[in-house]
Amino acid sequence: xxxxxxxxxxxxxxxxxxxxxxxxxxxxxxxxxxxxxxxxxxxxxxxxxxxxxxxxxxxxxxxxxxxxxxxxxxxxxxxxxxxxxxxxxxxxxxxxxxxxxxxxxxxxxxxxxxxxxxxxxxxxxxxxxxxxxxxxxxxxxxxxxxxxxxx
Length: 151
Fold this sequence. Notes:
It is a single chain. The protein is of the alpha/beta class. It has seven helices and four strands, in the order βαβαααααββα. It has one domain (about 1-150). Strand 1, helix 1 and strand 2 form a beta-alpha-beta unit. The radius of gyration is 16 Å and the shape is globular.
């Protein structure tokens, strides 16, 4: 089983996940793709949700719906900063969740705003990031920590 993380911020990430699932089914891939919402997994850590009742994902989608593009850059910078500051707790939460799941052969993320080293023994194979929005991703966030060959 390959675990495929997505989020529902904007819709493009979910579309990328659906396309991967459709391609795997069409080609009769020898593995199952299981799609999970990364936002739902980390919802207890969402500071915006805790303080306003409105998740970061919901705020992003509301900004897109209302075409308030001036707010996109500040929101993305806020999100990137929060990821950077809370990276350790995000990874620990991810690993704890993964350890309770059937062990995936690989984990793929179809959104660029969170990447990390392979989360330990919770994953038996690759942990990789599929870039779908390179232009809005800061270099420190998207560039690999190590090459896959060193895992």
